């Protein structure tokens, strides 16, 4: 009798585990989807559709124009990763690679901010208020969780 119930008990346990995993995945996905996005692009999320499309187009154009800067930053990060993998750390070279990445990131951010300012200069006061609200959310977005180093 006990032997015939074992498959049933295992099946029920697995189904409960599967249902919990699915429910947990849905909760995790919804939390990630509704979490505030901390990016300059997110500033325009609440703009009316035509203005939002124009805002995104402005940012895409800025990224396209700064493509080489983006590639330089990516290469600098690859160089830094390669240096970290070496058996002997070349600290000055690593610092130089990280500096190149930081300079590229700063230049890209400055280019995006300049384009946002240009967009805002041609926007209505209502649209600028929406951008200001987005900027406030950007400022107050929670920082990413810190990874413990042990």
UniProtKB/TrEMBL annotation:
Q: Which UniProt keywords apply?
A: Membrane, Transmembrane, Transmembrane helix
Name the InterPro entries on file. Metal_resist
Question: Superkingdom, according to UniProt?
Answer: Bacteria
Membrane-spanning regions, if any? Answer: 6-29
Q: What is this protein called?
A: Periplasmic heavy metal sensor
């Amino acid at each position: 009798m006990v032997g015939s119930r074992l498959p049933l008990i295992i099946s029920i346990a697995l189904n409960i585990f599967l249902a919990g995993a699915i429910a947990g995945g849905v909760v995790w996905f919804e939390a990630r989807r509704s979490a505030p996005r901390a990016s300059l692009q997110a500033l325009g999320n609440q703009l009316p559709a035509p203005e939002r499309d124009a805002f995104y187009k402005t940012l895409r154009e800025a990224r396209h124009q700064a493509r080489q800067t983006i590639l330089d930053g990516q290469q600098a990060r690859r160089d830094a990763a390669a240096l970290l993998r070496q058996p002997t750390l070349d600290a000055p070279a690593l610092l130089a690679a990280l500096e190149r990445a930081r300079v590229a990131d700063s230049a890209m951010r400055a280019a995006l901010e300049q384009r946002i300012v240009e967009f805002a200069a041609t926007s209505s006061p209502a649209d600028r208020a929406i951008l200001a609200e987005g900027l406030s959310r950007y400022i107050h977005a929670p920082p990413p969780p810190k990874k413990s180093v042990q």
